[in-house]
Write a structure and sequence with these properties.
Elements: H1 5-13, H2 25-37, E1 41-48, E2 51-58, E3 67-73, E4 92-93, E5 98-100, H3 108-123, E6 132-137, H4 148-152, H5 155-160, E7 162-167, E8 180-183, E9 185-194, E10 198-199, H6 208-231, E11 242-250, E12 262-263, E13 266-275, H7 281-292, E14 299-305, H8 326-336, E15 346-348, H9 354-359, E16 364-366, E17 383-385, H10 386-405
This protein binds methionine and zinc ion (2 copies).
């Protein structure tokens, strides 16, 4: 097989890094090989055993200046292979240039594009003023607790002296690149109702499922009011609180098609909640406490938010996108220099590892250069067109060049 940016992308995509058993050693050894051939220094750190992360460094001529970090994650969500046109780890390329693979958009494209851009800059004789770091982290798709969260609070991260970071973004259906200056914080809510068990034929108050269902209905109503605001055009999708049931459990399954004649004493539901930076977490928490899981209805709940190391239930920081942030205008001009246009900056509806870095006070933009591309993150038949992938390399060349050459802004030290 020939060795081109596209075939290197395909090789990276063919490594199965999907949960629940992501292979982390193979992608790291692939990336280390690439990085060494470019003369970058490589460092692997295992904060948690079996969950390594990789940091590549291109030394700048003034390594004292705050550095630029380009991040991507190694892992992917699973794929239902039988629902795909081409196997999800085949990286099959169609005649019209679509490369099908889990991770093609989220986010192995950027992981390879960073390296290809550095390769091209090097071959043109460019050398950076600031240090350029490229990180590849595990576990993003399951919260980043054993990956970026541990990295962000580590002495190793502090030593990198990161002044600005680019992390993943999302595809754009139109011809303007999307860029994200903030994101929603994920809360994982489990509610649990307890009640008296009883004969299936008996009518009584305060059963576990009855208590749970009251909450399920209230939550569904709240979900509807939030969704209505989007449908009415009053808020962007990522500016409202989303709450979706992702888990339900109660009772004993039917036997031989006949339901068990026993009312259960415990019933549970799990919700995926995404809270935008403009929502008040305390008000929302009160709602859960008083309306959705009140102890007077024999209910209890747990909320897992952000991670193991950070304070719970806080508000996420947004990166400023005005003149107070010099990185913003450098980034914007660098994209425009490639003939690209940026759409109005957005809050990301989902969640990335960027939140851990923003929490440190380091500005982060979420950006994946994919225009005229359907948004297929976590979907069947995820693909990226070869031409879009190749154009992305050029865009990163411009971005890396501009950001790493920035002389001012030493007050940006975190
Ligand atoms: C829940 S932490 C983030 C995991 C994943 N990136 C998502 O948005 O769902
Ligand atoms: Zn991602
Ligand atoms: Zn994802």
């Amino acid at each position: 097989e020939e060795d081109t940016p596209i075939t290197r992308f395909q090789r990276y995509l063919r490594i199965n890094t999907a949960h629940p058993n992501p292979n982390y050693t193979a992608p790291i050894s692939f990336l280390v090989d690439q990085a060494r051939s470019l003369g970058l220094t490589t460092r692997t750190i295992e904060f948690v055993k079996g969950k390594p992360l990789l940091i590549l460094t291109w030394l700048g001529s003034n390594p004292k200046l705050p550095s630029i970090l380009f991040n991507s994650h190694l892992d992917s969500v699973p794929a239902e292979a039988d629902k795909w046109l081409h196997p999800p780890f085949s990286a099959h390329r169609t005649d019209d240039g679509r490369i099908y693979a889990r991770g093609a958009q989220d986010d192995k494209c950027i992981g390879v594009q960073y390296l290809e851009a550095i390769k091209n800059l090097k071959s043109r004789g460019f050398s950076p003023l600031r240090n350029v770091h490229v990180s590849y982290v595990p576990e993003e798709e399951i919260g980043g607790f054993d990956g970026m969260e541990m990295f962000a609070v580590s002495s190793e991260f502090k030593e990198l002296n990161v002044g600005f970071t680019i992390d993943e973004g999302q595809a754009s259906r139109g011809d303007e690149y999307r860029v994200f200056y903030g994101e929603r914080t994920p809360w994982s809510l489990d509610i649990r109702a307890e009640g008296i068990p009883g004969h299936g034929a008996k009518l009584y108050d305060n059963g576990a499922t009855e208590n749970l269902m009251k909450s399920v209905e209230l939550i569904a109503k709240f979900r509807e009011t939030q969704f209505d605001m989007v449908k009415a055009g009053k808020a962007a999708y990522s500016e409202i609180i989303s709450i979706n049931p992702v888990y339900l459990k109660a009772g004993t399954p039917s036997t031989n098609g006949f339901v068990m004649n026993m009312q259960p004493s415990v019933a549970e539901a799990g919700y995926d909640i995404r809270l935008p930076p403009m929502a008040d977490p305390d008000v929302f928490k009160k709602r859960i406490d008083e309306e959705w899981a009140p102890s007077i209805r024999n209910m209890s709940y747990s909320i897992l938010e952000r991670g193991k190391l950070k304070d719970h239930l806080g508000r996420l920081i947004m990166t400023s996108i005005d003149d107070s942030n010099p990185w913003w205008s450098i980034f914007k001009q660098a994209v425009e220099a490639t003939g690209g246009k940026l759409a109005k900056p957005e809050i990301l509806a989902s969640t990335t590892d960027a939140r851990y870095i923003r929490t440190l006070g380091v500005p982060v933009l979420g950006f994946s250069p994919m225009i005229n591309t359907p948004i297929l993150v976590h979907d069947h038949n995820e693909f990226l067109k070869d031409t879009v992938f190749m154009k992305g390399i050029e865009v990163y060349e411009s971005i890396i060049n501009a950001l790493s050459s920035f002389e001012g802004g030493s007050d940006q030290v975190n």
